[in-house]
Amino acid sequence: MVLHRNLGPYDTTAIGLGEMPLTLENNLGEDKGLETIHAALDAGCRHIDTAWAYYCSGGEEQTGEKLVRKALQTWDGPRDEVCVATKVGHFRNFVDGKPSWEVDGRPETLIRNGKLSAQALGVDSIDLLYMHRPDPKVPYNESIEAIKQLLDEGVAQYAGVSNTSIELIDVARGILGDRLIAVQNQYSPVHTDTQDTLDYTAKVGLAFVCWSPLGGYRRAKDEKRFGSFRALAKTRGVSYQQIVLAWELAKGDQVFVIPGAHRPETILDSLKAGDLDLTPEELATLD
Ligand SMILES: NC(=O)c1ccc[n+]([C@@H]2O[C@H](COP(=O)([O-])OP(=O)(O)OC[C@H]3O[C@@H](n4cnc5c(N)ncnc54)[C@H](OP(=O)(O)O)[C@@H]3O)[C@@H](O)[C@H]2O)c1
User: Fold this and answer.
1) What interhelical angle do 227-236 and 240-249 show, nearest 10?
2) Which of 12, 172, 263, 281 has the smallest CB count inside 10 Å?
3) What is the CB-side half-sphere exposure of residue 238 using CA atoms within 13 A?
4) Is residue 246 a part of any domain in this protein?
5) pTM (2 decimals)?
6) Do the Cβ atoms of 214 and 245 come closer than 8 Å?
7) What is the CA radius of gyration of the chain?
8) In the structure, what pLDDT confidence band is assigned to residue 98 with cuts at 50, 70 and 90?
9) Containing H/E element for 158?
10) Ligand 1, CB cutoff 6 Å, lining residues
């Protein structure tokens, strides 16, 4: 069984599926996307992470959320057990011919897009809705008040914040109270700058969800940082990705990982990371 943890009130898997590579540029098409999500669910994964903005720049919007909806509608397992998280606050654009990520944290946009997210996911109420990224042009409290309105109206059950600092987590806690359940920040062997927020979530009773836990779906920036993970993987006879995910999960009981995948094989391998019990000595070498 895939390792379970409490994400706020949800008893879900500590290893979720990061949906992003399935609908961004260079994805392998809808059939492969559905196959990948179904494989993850069949293997026991009960946590899917998507976003309003997971679509190809310049293309139809919200294709990630629509893919998740279709995958769940065509899956014959227990839909109610699956915790689906999405995010609002980003959109895609082309800048100088290149795909880019833009932010729009204006309350009216967040409220409109939150409702569109529920529609695209085909739910009355979203399980977990994140504020995707602070918008420097909009005071953070104004964006979070919009998320609160979505909770008050029942568009979402619980909220999270992403790409955020301790100071902004506290702003969100002040407005959302115990309906704020998660912080989703980048965290991996090549990105530990957010360690302070990981530690803070343990202190204040929030979940910490590591995004790009394997260093990113394109290519990890600093391959050298994975050296000790590869060495231990060889000794243990598993993939180094499993060692990375197990190391992250060992950072605290509040930690979740959402590895991305383009195909069933990689997510099926990642889901096994919860079975690895790394010893204190092994963890020390990795640190
Ligand atoms: N909140 C935010 O701002 C934010 C930003 C970025 C991402 N995210 C979330 O975080 C999720 C994960 O991030 P990510 O997709 O960028 O990168 P990632 O999880 O760090 O890496 C994904 C890549 O690792 C490969 N992989 C995964 N498991 C593997 C395994 N067991 N063995 C070998 N290769 C494996 C996949 O390969 P294949 O391609 O071969 O399957 C995929 O290309 C996203 O999908 C998204 O949901 C959130």
Assistant:
1) 110
2) 281
3) 22
4) no
5) 0.97
6) yes
7) 18
8) confident
9) strand 156-162
10) 18-21, 49, 132, 162-163, 184, 211-217, 239, 241, 258-263, 266, 269-270
Closest by CA position to 187, among listed 118, 280, 258: 258
What pLDDT is recorded for position 221? 54
Ordered alpha helix ranges (H), the chain: 30-42, 63-73, 107-121, 140-152, 166-176, 195-204, 227-236, 240-249, 264-270, 280-286
Q: Does residue 244 lie within any of the structural domains?
A: no
User: Could you tell me the distance, in angstroms and rounded to a whole number, from the CA of residue 240 to the centre of ligand 1?
Assistant: 14
What are 61's two structure tokens? 């919007």
Its domain, for residue 201, covers 11-219+254-272
Q: Give how far Cα 116 sits from Cα of 51, 181, 236, Å.
A: 11, 22, 45
pLDDT band at 222 (very low <50, low <70, confident <90, very high): low
In the chain, the number of structural domains is 1
Query: Is residue 186 situated within a structural domain?
Result: yes
Task: Compute CA 264 distance to the chain's CA centroid, rounded to the nearest angstrom.
Answer: 18
As annotated, the active-site residues are: 54
Determine, yes or no, domain membership for 108: yes
State mean pLDDT over 25-32.
95
Q: How far is the CA of 52 from the centre of ligand 1 (A)?
A: 17
DSSP string, 36-62: HHHHHHHTT--EEE--TT-S-TTS-TT
For 211, the token pair is: 């995004």
Q: Report CA(62)–ligand 1 centroid distance (Å).
A: 18
